[in-house]
Amino acid sequence: MKKYIANALMLSLLILPLAASLPAVASATTTLNWNVTGSYVVALNYQGANYPHDMVLAQDDMGALTGNGGSPAGGPYAYTWVITSGSVTGDTISFSADYTSSTDAVVPQTTMLASGTIATDGSMSGTWSDNYQGGARSGTWSTTSGNAVLPGTLSAQDFGVMTQSGVAGYTAGFGLASATFAGAQSVVMQLYSGSTLLQTNTATAKVGVDITGTDISSPFDVFGTFDYAADGYWTNVRGTEYGQTLIPTKVVATVTLANGKVVTAENTNLTGDPTTIFPVVGTSTPTVTIENYINGAQATASSAQGLAFPMTESYTIAGVAGVSAYTLSPTGINSTNAYEAITSPLDASSSYTTNEITGGSAVGAVCASGTPFALTGYSTGATLAAAASSSVSTTTPSFASLSGNEFVIVQNVACNGNSSSTGGIGGIVVSSNGILHVDSITTTKSTSTADGAFADGWQYIFHITTPTSESKLSMSFADWINTANASSVIPVANDIEIASPQANNAGAEILLTAANSYSAPLTMVSDLDPTTSGRQVDVTVNVAIPVGTATGAYTTSYGLQTNP
Question: Structural domain of residue 162, as residue ranges?
């Protein structure tokens, strides 16, 4: 017997503990314009002829250089030399080197002096001179292989609920490495719920002058009284829906450093309880509000492809039972909002149950059914914020005795791998006994540069319960799709690998070689928690980002399968 799970897996292109003071200031450090550490081939031109040399450079935090070289490039070397002093300052490089072989360059000692300029593409060129055999030679030099790089990377630090300093909303912080905010040309932070842009904060000229360290934080006020103009560090632009209903799912920061390099990072791990900033209204005539979410964000006519999602409800009001059908569609019910239905006011202590009907043309139990959307489950709460932040369950929402308003979010995922929103991940259990399921997913790294290396790519850890009678576990993935440009794709083949410390192959990785095809199985032989029903295992998913991949957020769907 096979058991399957299918769901949408989101990238999450991932800030400072909450602080009463909004800009976080760190001590300034020296920012170098270039880092030349690396290996190069250098053409030393003498009297019109080029003599290729290998050159290896190492640059420390103060710009001092060490290194060595040899000629001819590629070896074996007839001549070798080591750098005795050198430095990089701004766009200039200079060093002094003593030859260490052969004898004619050592007796008497030959010393070469070189200076040059680093171009915008990282190539270098300049002039050289030496005292070979007591004489005086000189010429020009230029790199033909290898490039210097601009330093500076940005990473997420915190993203949390904030209720202080006049802010009733959220705060986000980011940190720089190998650079500071001193002289930063631009700092922009954007708050999203799925693909919906809620707020944009743009730093004023004070950032880069007052904030000269490595850390920065920014507030996103929703229900508070924070005065951005009086604070002076940020200009704030709010969208139509700026967080009063939608729960933020990520914040994206883009920084243009003083050296001109643009760095970006995002955080999708919101901490804190959003319900602490949302007003809660009690009532003796409660209502139930039903919302449709696609990939963790409130559905729109665009994200839901204009489709109507069939629903059913059953209720007992004042002792009278009833059952009826309705749809969540671009036209709201008792609401002007698309994909939202609100019941008529109910008597206190009424009971109410509702669920989505799968199997039609719009939504299926799993993506493999061929429908454009699949049901992952429901989340509920006394406010929309509470429902959005609560865990997703496949249990049908049921309220036995209503004492106040309730909210139900019907959690659907897009099955075409081309959704433009981002959000939560949940599993769909379709086996009869319900043992196989994804308990949770830990995102250990969701930002990466496109260098083709697994070590530098994205990483997720799936915490899974499998049937104890089915030890072989396989996974499949669809090709990753850029949420802003569907033509930009990260292929599965040779770019995804899985591994598990609970498998019998000592944690070795299994490479996936095709999209939408299950991998060779991992055979599970140990259990992380023998006291819990089923076998508890962790599966690490590594994703390499091919060289040349376009920047942006990407999404995919996954499948999970076990066999005896």
Answer: 153-276
* For residues 311-319, average pLDDT: 85
Question: Over the chain, what is the mean pLDDT?
Answer: 85
3-state secondary structure 446-507: CCCCCCCCHHHCEEEEEEEEECCCCCEEEEEECCEEECCCCCCEECCCCCEEEECCCECCCC
Q: Which residues contact 280 (CB under 8 A, 6 or more apart)?
A: 382, 383
Q: Is 240 exposed, middle or buried (0-12, 13-18, 19+ CB in 10 A)?
A: exposed
Instruction: At 456, list the tokens.
Output: 């530098």
In the DSSP assignment, the letter for residue 64 is B
Same domain, 138 and 161: no
Question: In whole angstroms, what is the distance from residue 338 CA to residue 303 CA?
Answer: 11
**Tens digit of pLDDT for each residue in 462-484?**
999 888 888 899 999 999 888 77
Pairing of strands 79-89, 92-101: antiparallel
pLDDT at position 56, please? Answer: 97
Burial 63-96 (b: 16+ CB within 10 A, else e): bebbbebbbebeeebebbbebeebebeeeebebe
| Residue 21 placed within a domain | no
Q: Which of 111, 59, 60 is nearest to 82 (CA)?
A: 111
Please count the helices (runs of H) and the strands (runs of E) in the chain: 3, 37
Q: Is 423 a domain residue?
A: no
Lowest mean pLDDT across 29-38, 236-245, 454-463: 29-38
Q: What does pTM read for this prediction? A: 0.41
531 burial type by CB count under 10 A (0-12 exposed, 13-18 middle, 19+ buried): exposed
Same domain, 83 and 43: yes
**Rounded-to-integer distance, Cα 535 and Cα 525, Å:** 9
* Lookup: tokens for 497: 């690998």
